[in-house]
Amino acid sequence: MNIKKIKNRFRINLGWKLAIVFVTVYSLLIGYFVYFAIHDEHRIIQQNAENTSLNFARMLAAATTYALSCRDHMSLNELAERIGREPDILYFIVQDENNVVVTSTDQELEGQIMTDDISRRANQTPEALLQGMAPETEGFLTYRHSDFDVTVPIFVAEKKLGLIRLGMSAKKLNQELAIIRSKGIRINIISIVVGVVAATLMAWGVTRPLKKLNSVTRKIADGDLTQRVRIRTFDELEDLGYAFNQMAVKLKQSYDNLEDQVEKRTKELLESKKKLEALFNGITEMISVQDTDYNIVMANHAVAEICEIAPQELIGKKCYQIYFQREQPCDDCPVSKTMATGQSAFSEKKMHGDISFLHVSDH
Question: Which of 21, 77, 99, 174 is exposed most, by the fewest CB atoms within 10 A?
Fold first, then answer.
């Protein structure tokens, strides 16, 4: 397999190159903006959910303060029962100043002191506290928040009266984040598809004129100088097509002028040849031209008449055969001397019973 075949096998069309580069850069930019847009939206939704939970817990703490100070267990139980019906509430706990559970949506906890890590931090906090109940999971465009515990201590005259704890479900928050992820992914896919279409159109708009230009160039290279290219892109490619046509016009004009000059020169050479042949054949003395192998390459009519051989039959014959009927070059042959010395040589030889003076020169 030669190099040209290898290059053709791995050759990538210019349009594909443009499309690949455009789509790659475009997709990276869109993906970058979509990714950080989802991050920002996630942060906003999370912050809103936390603020809403804290405000709701503070409201419940205010509503609980009087009943807790009066040890009104009935009112506290009714409040816990109502709050427990809310779908986003996992639990509601009221504790006294000694962290003993006064009331809860889980009645088994009443009268106990909770000692798990979340409860321990909740019992010690001097201000509102929001804690995740499990580690959050986060990946590329993937977020999942755990349920969280909101604690609000209750103070009366700077004395801790107790606290309320609210367990909030993260299900709704995760659903909203999943919707945002889906929208972001759809936007990204649609943007990439639009980018592919735009890149294809752009590549087609660039390569189509270039293919025309390449096709016309090949035809001109094959000798058809009448070919012209038509490009209507209203940009530099159209300017290139116009310049190419101007070049083709100039090239054809030069070629036509050259043909005229060649034809004219050919006629002049033919006329000169005819004049030289007429002059050559008009000489009454025998004149012939031999090559280095003694072959006659040119002879005038006088040679043909004296030797009684048609002029066309003289060409290619050995001079010593025509003039002296010999099978070998003559002794003291002037042709041999001229070829050996490069100088003109003169000799007298008998030919057909007459004395012929042969003057041989080398040029």
Answer: 21
Tokens 């869109």 found at: 30
Q: Confirm if 176 and 84 have CB atoms less than 8 A apart.
A: no
Asked if the structure places residue 206 within a domain, the reply is no
**The residue type at 16:** W
Locus of tokens 């159109």: 201
- Beta strands per DSSP E along 229-295: 288-290
Please, are residues 57 and 128 in contact by the beta-carbon 8 Å criterion? yes
- Taking only the tens place, the pLDDT of each residue in 226-276 is 888 887 877 777 787 788 888 888 888 887 888 788 888 888 888 888 887
pLDDT of residue 57: 92
CA distance 362 to 290: 10
Please report which helix (H) or strand (E) contains residue 68, including its range: helix 14-69
Handedness of CA 268, 273, 276, 277 (dihedral sign): negative
> In terms of C-beta density within 10 A (0-12 exposed, 13-18 middle, 19 or more buried), how is residue 299 classed?
buried
pTM of the model: 0.53
Tell me if 94 sits within 8 A of 101, measured CB to CB. Answer: yes
pLDDT digits (tens, 9 = 90+) for 69-116: 888 889 999 998 999 898 889 999 999 999 999 999 998 999 999 989
Q: What is the CATH number of the domain that holds 295?
A: 3.30.450.20
Q: Are residues 292 and 167 in the same domain?
A: no
Beta strands at 129-132 and 296-299: parallel, antiparallel or unpaired: unpaired
On whether both 76 and 144 belong to a single domain, the answer is yes
What is the distance of C-alpha 308 from the center of its chain?
80
